Structure formats: C-alpha cells, structure tokens
C-alpha cells in the first residue's frame, strides 16, 4: 500500500514549539490526530475483513483447518523473531541476536511438526495450495508456505511496523483524551463548587448585615422610647 508523499510539514523546530505551548493550554491538535488515525485504522480493518471474506469464498474447503492455523501462528512467531534478531544485529547486540536465533530454531522444529500434522490431515493435492491468511495488523496476505526471508521481510517491514506504531499511537492518544476529559470535568466541578461557596458566603454576609441592621434599628427604637418616658 502506497499512500504517496505526506502532505504535512515535518519540522522538528515546529514540533518543539508545539510541545512547549501545549503544556500551557490545550491546542486540541491531538483530537484531530485521533480522528485521522481512527479513519486510517478503520480503512485498514475494512480491507482486512474484505480480504478474509474473499479468502473464505475461494478457500472454503480448507478454511476451518486447525492445523493450518497452527502453522500460520508459528510462521508469525518465526517472522517476528527473525526481524528482532536482524534489528539486534544491526545495533551491534550480536550475543542477544544469537539467543533470538536459537529461539527461532526451536520454533522451526514446532513448525515442522505442525506442517506434518497439516499434511496428514489434507489430500495431497490440497496441501500444495498456497493457503493464505490476512495479517491482522496491516491487512497484507501471508502464505502458509512462506519462507523465513519472506516472513522476516513482512514482520520487519515498514508497512507492518508502521501500522504497529499507528495503532500504538492511537491508543496513547485515546488515553490522553480520556485523561483530558476527566481533568476538564474535575475543573468544571471545582469551579462550580467555588461559585457555590462564594454564593453561600455572599448569602451569609447578606443575612449578617440584615440581622445587624435589624438589631441596630431595634436598639434605636428602644432608646427613643426611653427618652420619651423621661
């Protein structure tokens, strides 16, 4: 999937200015980002569901095979481990990369057993079909018989990793949005409490002045009556 060149301006100085300004007040750009990413993810999920539907129509006779699903799961595990090993190697963590490759060998053994189970459960002609699966992250197709290089290229590729980042960022923005809404509700509640408190204070002062005024008038009236009697 090629979206072409991004139409937005990517400027580190502008980003720094925004991060400083956003600490002082809400600028609401995050809400725009949530809408944009939600639309992006929704489009990807729609493509995923359509691809699943097409596969179900063309591969209906083997779509319910538990053994095939197990092979797919192990393929995914191998692909992720190989991508991780390559990343560690590129960063110079050779020992860690070797440990991950050892784990890959263990998963390959499990995959071989799963493939044997799948082979025994299917007619020979059906086994050679390229049973496909749709990646839940980026909607790309994955084949049951994909080799290690293909798996590593997929799970370590820009498309797959990009969608992981998009989904993670969307989750972070949703958490931020909920937190912001809670702060705004608390702020409004605090403001209402302050207004009520000020209103009660004014009412108490008004009653106090009223009582004081009444006592003062009563005192003057008593004094006037006393003067008349004298």
Automatic annotation (TrEMBL):
Residues 41-117 form a coiled coil. Keywords: Coiled coil. GO terms for molecular function: mRNA binding. Residues 177-230 are annotated as: Disordered. GO terms for biological process: mRNA splice site recognition. Residues 180-222 have a biased composition (Basic residues). Signal peptide: none annotated. One of its GO terms (cellular component) is U1 snRNP. Belongs to the Luc7 family. This is Uncharacterized protein. It comes from Mola mola (Ocean sunfish).
């Amino acid at each position: 999937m090629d979206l072409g060149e991004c139409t937005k301006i990517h400027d580190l100085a502008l980003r720094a200015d925004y991060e400083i300004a956003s600490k002082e007040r809400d600028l609401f750009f995050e809400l725009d980002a949530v809408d944009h990413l939600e639309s992006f993810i929704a489009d990807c999920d729609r493509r995923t569901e359509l691809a699943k539907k097409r596969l179900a129509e063309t591969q209906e006779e083997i779509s319910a095979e538990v053994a095939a699903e197990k092979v797919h799961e192990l393929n995914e595990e191998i692909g992720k481990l190989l991508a991780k090993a390559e990343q560690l190697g590129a960063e110079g963590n050779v020992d860690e990369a070797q440990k991950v490759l050892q784990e890959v060998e263990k998963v390959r053994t499990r995959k071989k057993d799963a493939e044997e189970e799948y082979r025994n459960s299917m007619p020979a002609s059906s086994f050679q079909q390229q049973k496909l699966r749709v990646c839940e992250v980026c909607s790309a197709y994955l084949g049951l018989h994909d080799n290690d290089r293909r798996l590593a290229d997929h799970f370590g590729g820009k498309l797959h990793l990009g969608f992981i980042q998009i989904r993670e960022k969307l989750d972070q923005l949703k958490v931020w949005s909920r937190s912001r809404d809670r702060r705004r509700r608390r702020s409004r509640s605090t403001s209402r409490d302050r207004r009520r408190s000020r209103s009660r204070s004014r009412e108490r002062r008004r009653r106090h002045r009223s009582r004081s005024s009444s006592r003062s008038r009563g005192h003057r009236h008593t004094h006037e009556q006393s003067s008349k009697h004298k």
